[in-house]
Amino acid sequence: MAADATPESTLPNTAAETSPDNPWPLQLLSRKLKAHIERAPSAWIEGQVIELNRRGGNAFLTLRDVDAEISLPASVWSTVLDRQKIPLERGSRVVALVKADFWVKTGRLNMSVKDIRPVGLGDLLARIERLRQALAAEGLFADSRKRKLPLLPHRIGLITGRDSDAKKDVLRNAALRWPAVEFDVREVAVQGNTAVAQIIAALRSLDADPHVDVIVLARGGGALEDLLPFSNEDLIRAVAAASTPVVSAIGHEADRPILDDVADLRASTPTDAAKRIVPDVSEELAMVRQARDHLRRSIGRMVDRETDRLHALRSRPVLATPDTMVAARSEDITRLQRRSHAAVSTAVVRALDQVHHLRAQVRALSPQKTLDRGYAVVQMVGEDQAGHTVVSSPAQTPEGTPLAIRVAEGRFRAVSTGQAQLVEH
Question: Has this prediction a pTM greater than 0.85?
Answer without folding.
Answer: no
